[in-house]
């Protein structure tokens, strides 16, 4: 969470119960665990997807909706731990950010006062998150969590990781890790991230090259966390350093997809009224599902 877009967006409506359930202690974390419903058309898989949330964590319905969809469409178990140090942002912050970002003419005194009040309310949560909640602080514990999840999978199971905003940093970092400390087997068998925060282009290159884990990213062209030109530079550098186009040559597979006119957070928190971002969110979900179905 390193910009206003990281804590803005829309809470998606959800009717009925979620498919999965929360457990209070799954390898040390409160975790939402979801499996394919009995009505799913996809064959059950022995693999697991580790879903690393954005800054709103398990309290944002959008994340559970998406996790349920991944499970139903891939046949995998999906685990989503509450892993943000100090706790996640409450979804109500998005309402404050709507007020902060809404246009107000300079002579509208009441409007300016409302905006100032919304800024003050948002800062009550934003500042502690910045001080306590950087994803690098959670990374050592999440490496262990991911290793335990992989170790308990049935024979033939693979580990996928999906990371969004705050969680994108973690999902990319996990690509460098091995399944056991000092071991040879890679930890992550397939990685997907959307609009990751706190990352550098070098992190992506290092993650892909370390264990040759398949990498996919969904990136909006209006995302200022990682711009399209910077991401394209990463692709060009990878082609040179690996001798591959990302289609399997020399064991490297990667996929960079760009979503025109979509901003940071679109894959999880797109406003239903924004047709461009809503379609981008739909397409990004299908991108992730296809990627995991291919590699897990």
Automatic annotation (TrEMBL):
Hydrolase: present as a keyword of the record?
yes
Question: What terms describe the molecular function in GO for this protein?
Answer: hydrolase activity
Q: Does the keyword DNA-binding apply?
A: no
- By what name is this protein known? Alpha/beta-hydrolase
At the top level, the lineage of the source is Eukaryota
Keywords assigned by UniProt, alphabetized? Hydrolase
PANTHER family referenced in this protein's UniProt entry, alphabetically: DIENELACTONE HYDROLASE, DIENELACTONE HYDROLASE FAMILY PROTEIN (AFU_ORTHOLOGUE AFUA_4G08790)
